[in-house]
Specification:
This protein is α+β, with helices and mostly antiparallel strands. It has a four-stranded mixed beta sheet with strand order 2-1-3-4, with helices on both faces. Helix 5 crosses helix 6. It is globular.
Length: about 130
């Protein structure tokens, strides 16, 4: 029997920097859809209402990607931890991702390095930080 409430709710949304090659590839490689169904991938540089919702709530999308599931929001290291907990373990990338980020402590420790890599890549590619709507 299919859960009607689960079918009618909005899909999980992942908000990431679409101009960052690491971020864009990460959200494509994680097989979250296989585990939880529909997932909206939203470029943090877009004018999507979820981007505005996050920035209005005080989240800095230059400091981390975000996951929105209904009223619940995970940001930065909490987001990658949540993605690792929810995604399938099929494929080498997902097994590595799970091994690194299923631990909250490891996520907290490693995420600043990921963000630093993103910032370095953006500078090297001549791309500007995300302009936060206000």
């Amino acid at each position: 029997m299919v859960d009607q409430a689960a079918q009618s709710r909005d899909p999980i949304a992942i908000v990431y920097d679409g101009e960052c090659p690491f971020c864009a590839n990460y959200v494509k490689l994680v097989k979250l859809r296989e585990a939880v169904g529909p997932v909206r991938l939203i470029d943090a540089r877009s004018d999507d209402p979820i981007v505005k919702r996050l920035t209005d709530a005080g989240y800095d999308l230059n400091e981390g990607m975000a996951m929105v599931d209904g009223e619940k929001i995970w940001h930065g290291d909490e987001c990658v931890n949540r993605i690792a907990l929810m995604s399938t373990s099929s494929g080498l990338f997902n097994r590595i991702n799970a091994g690194l980020f299923r631990s909250q402590g490891a996520s907290r420790l490693l995420y600043p390095w990921l963000r630093g890599g993103r910032n370095f890549a953006l500078k090297a590619l001549g791309r500007k930080p995300i302009q936060q709507p206000r």
